């Protein structure tokens, strides 16, 4: 892995990165369909035990691409606004972004799948369901759309980098 | 290009897509560094004359990857919240997302480059600069970081797809 060129921007604060990945809701999963055909889609995710988990249909294009080539680049960003400067070229975005390289591996074990889906419900509809998801439900559920079980993928980061340009109070546009 | 599987979600409203791409500020540019090494970064962009334009350092990793392989998948999303359902598997995200396939081509012409950078300033710091950017400035400017001119890329969509799951009033989580 080659180093980030723009070294001033590297964020090494592990707690901050963990908080960020825990709180944010959407990441973009980038794949190579072929050597010159990148394919990417935004997806909801949970960050759990230092891994990214996503879920979805079992028969979409993503499933096909990942079956042939599981390597992914998973990115999450937040833009905080624009930092102004009298020199146009020095106006800049305040942001935090995380880029993760790894493989998206299908989770096969029904209990692990159920736990992940429970984390997803807990994150996106906290308190809405009064009881945890029964693994029996996950085992038996088939989508009305494609008659397949829900697909869950785990991305264990081989490399995780974060870049940051913090908010510069007093110089934010419109601030 | 194979069709989107989940056809209920296709958004074909061209005006809506144009408004969306015009208003949103960040997209993720996905590339293939090699056949099994996807590489992606979130970037600010402008949508102008039906094309995506991005700018940045002239010497980063992105520049190197794009020089070897200009094929990109450019994604922009907005998440509107979670649509609840008594059946856990039917809880779903309300969103709009656009996926663009094309090539990221460096803009060489100084006048075109200047026009793009002006659009970028107009979008991100509207009214902050009282006069348009002089092309002379763009021509002469070299980054203090790498002593290179600013890089501007144009992505002309070969294929543009949009997917949407609209807000379902009365069923939004927390709504």
Walk me through what this model shows.
Two copies of one chain form a homodimer. With 175 residues, chain A is α+β, with helices and mostly antiparallel strands. Helix content of chain A is 22%, strand content 39%. Chain A has a seven-stranded antiparallel beta sheet. In chain A, β5 and β6 form a beta hairpin. The longest helix of chain A is centred in the last third of the chain and has 15 residues.
Q: Which features characterize this protein?
A:
homodimer; 175 residues; alpha+beta; seven-stranded antiparallel beta sheet; 22% helix
SSE blueprint:
The structure is a homodimer of 175-residue chains.
Chain A: H1 14-23, E1 26-34, E2 37-44, E3 46-48, E4 51-56, H2 61-68, E5 71-83, E6 92-106, H3 110-124, H4 135-140, E7 151-165
Antiparallel strand pairs in A: 1-2, 1-5, 3-4, 4-7, 5-6, 6-7
């Amino acid at each position: 892995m080659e180093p980030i060129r723009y070294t001033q921007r590297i964020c090494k604060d592990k707690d901050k990165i963990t908080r960020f990945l825990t709180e944010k809701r959407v990441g973009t999963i980038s794949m190579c369909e072929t050597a010159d055909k990148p394919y990417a889609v935004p997806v909801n995710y949970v960050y759990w035990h230092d891994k990214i988990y996503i879920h979805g249909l079992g028969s979409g294009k993503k499933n096909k691409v990942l079956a042939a080539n599981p390597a992914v680049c998973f990115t999450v960003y937040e833009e905080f606004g624009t930092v102004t400067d009298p020199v146009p070229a020095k106006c800049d975005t305040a942001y935090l972004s995380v880029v993760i390289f790894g493989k998206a591996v299908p989770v096969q074990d029904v209990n692990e799948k159920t736990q992940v889906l429970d984390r997803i419900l807990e994150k996106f509809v906290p308190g809405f369901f009064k009881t945890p998801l029964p693994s029996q439900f996950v085992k038996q559920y088939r989508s009305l759309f494609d008659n397949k079980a829900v697909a869950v993928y785990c991305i264990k980061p081989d490399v995780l980098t974060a870049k940051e340009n913090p908010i510069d109070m007093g110089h934010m546009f419109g601030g």
